[in-house]
Amino acid sequence: MRLVWPCLSLAVVLLAACSDRRAGPAPERVPAPQQTRDASAPGQQSSQRSDAGADLLLMGRVSPEPPERDPSAPKVRLSLTVLPVDAEVQWGRKKLGVAGRKPLQLERARNSGPLDVVIRANGFLPYHTRLFTDRDDTLTVRLVRPADARSLLGWKPAARTGSAPPR
Amino acid sequence: LATALTAMVAVAVGGGCRKDAPATGSGGPQSGAPTAASEVTAKTEPLRPDPDALPPVADLPAPRRALQVVHGQERIVDAEVALARGLILVDLSDEWAPAIFQDAIAADGRPLPNRYRPVFVGLASDRTDGDGQPLRPGEKNHLELYGIPPSMGVLRDRFLADGKRSCADVDPARLLAVTSVSSWGASTEKKELQRAAERGARLEAARVAAQLASLEELATAQPDQAKLVAAHRRFEAERAAFAEVEKRLVCEGLLDPTKHTPGVYGTAMRFAMLAFQRKNAVMAEADITRDTLQALARTPLANAHLALRRVLTERAAHAGQILEDGTVGNPGDPKGPTYPDGKGGRVAVPDLVGEATAALLARLDVETPEKALAFFERRRPEDFPWLRAAVRFPARPPYYGPTMDLSAEIDRGDVWYDYPFDAKGVRLPQPRSRYPAFTLYVRWHGERVPLVRWRTTIGSWRNEVAADGQEYLRYKDSDVGPRVWRHVVAAPVWVPYASSPLGSMVKEKWVNGVPTRVTNHDEVGPGYLSAYGLAAGIHVEPRAGGGAWFDNGIRTHGTFDYTSLRGRFSHGCHRLANNLAVRLFSFVIGHRKVRPVGQVALDARRTFYSNGAVFDLRLPTRGFYFELDPPLPVETLPGTIKGKLARPIAGYVKNPALVYSTPAPAAPAPGQEDKAGGGPAGEQDP
After folding, report:
1. ipTM over 0.95
2. Nearest CB to B501: which of A21, A91, A128?
3. How many angstroms separate the CA atoms of B224 and B620, rounded?
């Protein structure tokens, strides 16, 4: 079981030194105020960070979100870009459309609840993500090929199924 | 000016109408106002004067309407007149949310939408789930224990449904004949029931052999059997109570008898029990405790009335912007806490919340279950978008004002630093007679006056997975000393560490009609299940030179884990029940100089792998922040250190229950987290 960890990406290993891999109930403390980076897929868009915020608190700065286009608009605009290929975007039983370099643009009623979507393209792992409807939302997703999955946080080799174990 | 004049005229008229003019009906059916036919029959005894009764007014627009029940008769009064008369408008609408979840306006006039507000309202109204998505038909949230009381519309439905259930076939005496009902897992239950049956058969055989009339006579005649007889009688009483529990859960509509095997505490019944406990705010997690039995022994209508009292307590506390709830001592106790009245005398710290709730119950004429049922029978769904009551609350003490000199204190109570196991791995007793307590004070005439005192938590030994992948024990200390709350956060988000365990990060839920695996946002929030609960105050320490603040990760925050407040430990934070955290921080932002910051940008994202798919955890916001200016002082007292060690053990300590393949790794390099969790270097494994 412990062999899983050595398989994680270098980024994750480096992050482990300043992280808290605890078991049991939910930890309560925010991360130590150190600069950290996203432990995510290769080529992940780096515009978003993990564990940010505590550093801002340390400096006494707290930054509000940028102002909305029109906070009173009854509908919000969602934009989903998918790389490196076009992919189908599914929300429950509904196909929302195709997203690629040309983003999939949607309009939803404000505060109608997040859209948990699954993005699928041949040759790539299904990708589950969430679009928010409490304000305009823009998201870029980079799909991951099965061969690259071992660099993802939490990757485990697929369990052997369907046949007796080799003798 | 016109409004003010109108109000003055109305006040004058109202003043002249203190003899309580009869209700003339108001609003008409479209407005949701009560009709003459729906009014309660007036009592025949002489009416006591009601100086706060306002004249009924017809055809008011919804924002101006308020409800009063005067001598049993409902009337719609002018909300502005009520305010002018010093009455409090208690928002009873289904759109209500506590002050900390209200939208705000920035200094530059920009609106600052509080993104959790619609979710809170949707949850309270049984319209949406914690993600803000619609509930399935008939689904109920029952989130009172998690800090989200049901809306009045939900309570109306409950009263109308439960008012019809008498559950007369349930025998409360049998339920109350025991202090609890033992329950076991499926396989153990079978064995335990079998064991008890065999014991009963043995005792019966002994009774017959001894030619005695009862087992009690057997116990007297053969003292060595007395303990067994007592245990058997207790078991029989518990089984009798269990049968009543089954009947009651079926009567309540929570247990489908076709999915239940009588006498067995199976999955369906456990879910039913959990639903009953959550519906009635019983903290028991499906265990059949004394509190549970007491709730089961009450009629459904009586339980609904208790729920109404709790709901109105929250509404009253928030409407009055009051906090004192009697937890610092009994106001009638001469030894209880007092404050100087400024005239040389002393006055007991009141139970303002209790008194305000009583006033609200009286104003609405819902002081008994039957009256409350009548109240809800008069209500129609169109009432709930506007419903508010005009009521006089008890006068607030003179220490109240727009900016109160508040401070918080956390007493850690009895603290043990000693390693909790002996050499053989047996847990050592570390008893505590004093538990951690949170107190909010106001400084008044040079004294600190306690307003509330609530149970909270401190850190202690916790399991932690070290860099070598093995699990160790580590002492998670709660910082001692003076700090401040500079920021208060509504619906805070907990950011998991880069390598936090992923076990619970994916869950299955219905998404647009299809069961789908989705990222589990519950633990991170924002939401009632967030590790930080519904609201938090961030403990920070000013750095020398000013301008910078040190955040060691300690917070006073709400928690979904309400049972932890009964004596368990945290990772160092100070937990409060979610509803109390919401009350507390709503009170703080209402009585301090505050700058609403709005939703603080986080824009964090974590991508991970689970069972053949990639998942995103997206955290766009850290929560809705309020900046306190000046910050509010909060001090954590060291408490009473028990045992031999005066300081916590630093670093990892092996758990005697586990087998280790390698020596314990060195403690992590000193950092913010380590400073909070350990003592000075040199004190290592015992």
Report:
1. no
2. A21
3. 68
